[in-house]
Amino acid sequence: MRYSTQVKPISFLKAHAAEVLTTLSEKREPLIITQNGEAKAVLQDVASFEATQETLALLKMLALGNEEVAAGRVKPIGEVISRLKAKKAQG
User: Fold this and answer.
1) Which residues are CB-contacts of 35 (< 8 A; sequence separation ≥ 6)?
2) What's the rounded Cα separation, in Å, for the pair 43 and 10?
3) Across the chain, how many H-helices and E-strands are there?
4) Cβ of 31: how many Cβ atoms within 10 Å?
5) Which one in 6, 26, 45, 62 has a CA-CA gap of 20 to 30 Å to 88?
6) 42-84 tens-digit pLDDT
């Protein structure tokens, strides 16, 4: 995706807000808003925002898991399965 085609000045947003919202939800491409020629904000549809947040959450979990592994805070899978089976048998 080329973001250079998705750059609009704030005046465009003010004059075409409804059209911009419709385009955002249809195309699901972010829109970069400029002010005085400088990029100031990125607009995106809610579904894309939610997907991005879910992706970031998964990446954070992976990073935390990698930190746990690097710190040696891991258990062999067989040990974990045995503990889970023992708990299930108790309950």
Assistant:
1) 9, 10
2) 11
3) 4, 3
4) 21
5) 62
6) 999 999 999 999 999 999 999 999 999 999 999 999 999 999 9
